[in-house]
Amino acid sequence: MKVLFLNTFEKTGGAAIACLRLMNALNANGVQTKLLVLDKQTDDANVYTVNTNCWKKLLNQWRFVWERLFIFVNSHIKRKDLFRVSIANTGTDISRHPLVQEADIIHLHWINCGFLSVKDIEKLTRLGKPIVWTMHDMWSCTGICHYSYTCLKFQTSCAECPFLNSKKEKDLSQSVFMEKKQRLQLPTLHYVAVSNWLADMAKRSSITSNHNITVIPNVISVSQMTPLDRAEARVKLSVYESYLIAFGAVRIDNEIKGFKYLAEAVRILTEEYHYQPEQIRLLLFGGIHNKEILDIISVPYSYYGFIADKTMLSTIYSAANVVVSSSLYETFGQTLIEAQLCGSVPVSFDNSGQTDIILHKQNGYLAKYLSSTDLAVGIDWGFHSNISAAELRKYVKNTFGEVVVAQQYKDLYQKLIENNIK
Length: 422
Known about the structure:
alpha/beta
C-alpha cells in the first residue's frame, strides 16, 4: 500500500507536526508513506516538494501573495482577520505528479496558503483513487474560515462573513462555499476528523454532510515526551512554588487561546480560595506578539518563549501540577496530551476537541465553557488530585499512541481500497 500525504508545510504549524508524526507512525507500521509539500524544510528522504526550481518557488510565493491580496480587498482593506481565512483561489495542479500517479491513497492534510486550490482538489478526486482528507480545523466544512467561532452560517451557506466585515449575502465567503459544495462532492472523498466535536461540525455543514466522516485522533509520539521526577524538574527550572500551572500555545496572545480566562481563574484562586499569590507560578511557553497580555497575570510567572526541544518541554510539563487549555475552540488539544505523558493533570473547558482527551474527574477536569470560576475549581481539583503519572501516560499510549492510531488509518485505507475496487 502506497500513501501520499499532502500538506503545505513540512514542519511549520500544528497540522504539519501532526502530519509528520502520522507519516512516521505509518512507515514504522508497514505502510509506505511519502509527503509532498509546498515548503520543504529538512533533508528528510520521505518528503518531496513541488518547488523543484527557483521559478516554481517564485510562482508559488506569488500565489500566496495573490490569495492574501484578494482577501484583503474583499475585507474592505482590513488586516485584522487576514490570516483567519483562506479562499484557495489559486494553487498547483499536481494531478499528473509522479507521486500522485503511483499512490494507492491520496491523503490531504492542511493545504492552504497557495498550495492547492479548490479546483486542484477536485482534479484529485476525479483520478478514481480514494482520497482521505484529515481535518485539522474547520476550513473543509466552511466557506473560508478556519474556525467559525459562534457563527453557524456554514451549516447552510456562508454569507455576511464577520471575518470580511461583510454585510452582503453574496460575498466572498458564500462564493467559496458554493464552489466547494459544487466541486467536492465525488464519493472518492472521505473525511477524517481529529475529534468528535470537529466531526459534528462537519456533519452540520452542507459541504461535508453527505460524505463519510471518520473520527481518528492525531498521533502522539510517546517516546519523545520523557517524564521527570517533579522535584528534579523544578530544580532544573529553578522554580520552587508549591503549585505550578503550565500553559502553552503557538501564540499565547491569540484571542482563541483564551488566556484571559486562565488569568482570571488564577486571580479567583488567590482571592477566593486559600492560595497565596507567592504559592502559584505560571509556566508559559509559545509565541507572544503583544507582551502586554502578561500584565494581567497576578502571580509569579516564567516565560520560556517558543520551545522546539522536547527535553525542555518534558521538563516544564513534569514540573507542573496542572496544564491548562482555556481555548475557545480546539480541534484536538495537543498540549493536554503531551502534559499527560509527563504526569501533569489537564484542565480545560468542556467544549470541542478537549472532550475527547479528558475524562472528567478521572484523568482531568472539564470546566463549564468560558467560566473562569469553574476553571479555578478545576485547577484546584488538579492541584490535589491523586492521579498517578503512570496512569496518565498509560492512557495516552493506549488511546493516542503511534501503533493505535496507525492501525486505525491502515484499517480505513484498506476499507477504502476494497470499496473502490468493487
